[in-house]
Amino acid sequence: MKEHFLAEYRAFAENGGGSSRFPAWLQQLRARAIAQFANVGFPTTHQEEWRFTSVQSIAETPFSLAVTDAAIPTLADIAPLLIGGRAAPRAVFVNGHFASALSSAQGLPDGVRLGSLAGALAAEPALVEPHLGRYARFDAHGFTALATAFLADGAFVSVPAKTAVEAPLQVLFVASAAGGHPMWHPRNLIVLAREARATVVETYAALGEAASLTNAVTEIILGDGARGEYYRVQHENPNAYHVATTHSHQGRDSALETCVIALGAALSRHDVTAVLGGTGAYLILNGLQVLGGRQHVDHHTCIDHAQPHGESHEVFNGIFDAEARGVFNGRIIVRPGAQRTDSKQTNNNLLLSRDARADSQPQLEIYADDVKCTHGSTVGPLDPTALYYLRSRGLGVAEAQALLTYGFGTEILSRIGVPEVRTQLDRIVRERLHIARWQQAS
Amino acid sequence: MAIRGITNAYFLRSAVNAIRHHQGLEELDPLDFAQILDEKLQAIGWDDSYLSRPVNEGFSGGEKKRNEILQLAVLEPRLAILDETDSGLDIDALKTVAEAVNKLRAPDRAFVVVTHYQRLLNYIVPDFVHVLADGRIVKSGGKALALELEEKGYDWLRPEAAIA
To answer: In this structure, are residues B40 and B88 in contact, taking their beta carbons and an 8 Å threshold?
Structure first.
């Protein structure tokens, strides 16, 4: 099992480990990470954090690093995946490798970086070193350890202090392999310095049908007073495996609005850790999952109120059809001294078939006494009273069901501030739910 | 009944299109529908503040009633049953709702207004008044009957009272 991945690592390291121009501290970080992976291996369902999600199928598949010379898709191929048209700023990766021909960083304000992390590591490591690997810890998480060991490339977004970027910055990972068991470990670093402002959209999409493994890690750092929006869309092909860790760290009076959307993959697991590390930080963490077939999705979120006067709002909605399965574990920590924290968590799961299943687990750990924390979760079918209401106004059964289901999704999507992002996601969700053209929202 | 995530405008368009679909008519696109909605709102003298809110979510009792009337205007049923539309409404809300209903009255549309009180009928003047007791119509008449009921109560119409 893990021996195969250790052998893959040795081959990777002997091949130069992505680039010989990488700084020594990165080589050391990777060496520590692979040692840790050798130690902990893949998680099993005996571990509390993985109780509902077996990754045995990943551990037993001989994945190998995707080769660089795969056919690069054309701009026309990826056009439907782009936010804001062909001229919009973006960093595109094909099978984990940066595709400069498909990327564009034109028209961005001075000092703003949007491109390859490998490029930044080689050219200006000083911008990267203070942050990379400092937040997404790999001591207890085998996949994060593996991703850190294979750390070679991903997106680097950096916005200097007091700089506002108006256009959404898109980071697009396209899987184009048609067969085999390719894997990639995208590593993304998003840094908004003091009082900077930007929106980042991270998309994982498939043009091929390979049973690939994406094992992504994204670190998001917001300096004091920074304002960020982060949207993540996972619509990999139905054979794919997707494991991800997103770790954000916020400074004083910063605001971060995030929304993570999971639509694809046979099996996906996303760990989101959000640390409100400065006084008065504000966080929105929303999520939407739309799954069918035998898909499985697992979200483990952890909102860590480390400082006082923080505010967090979390709403996750899941829509599960056929034999799909959803797992939500939402942990909220209020550290000692994090007084006047205001935290609200909601998880709603809609089961559209008898064989669909959802497990919802809130977990509150409060160590301060002057706080406001609420949570609630639901699991169940469409509300028969709501269906009756719609049917009594002329809608047929199927239309009423579709409308209510769609409402479950738009409840999350309507909160997305960037119109281009909202429109694209609305289209994708409508397609998934087979909502007729004349029923579309706008 | 609140419908999460679905705005009133979207819900109304879906309902109208479902009906049009059933009738073999072409569905309306958002722009056409917005125009029709605008005309309906003007006809009943209301603004569009309800349209962008999710259906019934956080609506007060009065707002829900008004919303029902808006649905009435847009869905254009041939028969509308207004069951205790006056319950829980203050005088101003009652007037607003009644005025809208009056504007929707038409030769090819019937309203059955169910109420316990005559007050509503000052605003919606009925063509016929029927008194229902124990599931049967026990007395029929014109609007004068409603006034008579207001004066004398219902007891004299009860079947046992009629026998005695």
So the answer is: no
Q: How many Cβ pairs within 8 Å bridge chains A and B? A: 60
Interface test with chain A among B14, B16, B19, by most A beta carbons within 10 Å:
B14
Of the candidates A289, A416, A389, the one whose C-alpha atom is nearest the C-alpha of residue B3 is A389
Range with lowest mean pLDDT among A39-43, A244-248, A332-336, B135-139? B135-139
> What ipTM was reported for this prediction?
0.83
A26 neighbors A33 (Cβ within 8 angstroms): no
Tell me: domain B8-125, CATH 3.40.50.300, correct? yes
Q: Could you tell me the two tokens for A368?
A: 């301060």
Facing A393 at nearest CB: one of B28, B54, B75: B75
- C-beta separation of A403 from B6 below 8 A: yes
| B44 alpha carbon, distance to own chain's centre | 12
Report helix angle A2-14 to A24-40, nearest 10: 160
Say yes or no: A435 contacts chain B, CB-CB below 8 A. Answer: no
Q: Where are chain A's structural domains?
A: 2-278, 384-442
pLDDT in tens, A187-223: 999 999 999 999 999 999 999 899 999 999 999 999 9
Residues A11-32 as b or e (16 or more Cβ within 10 Å = b) = ebbeeebbeeebeeebeebbeb
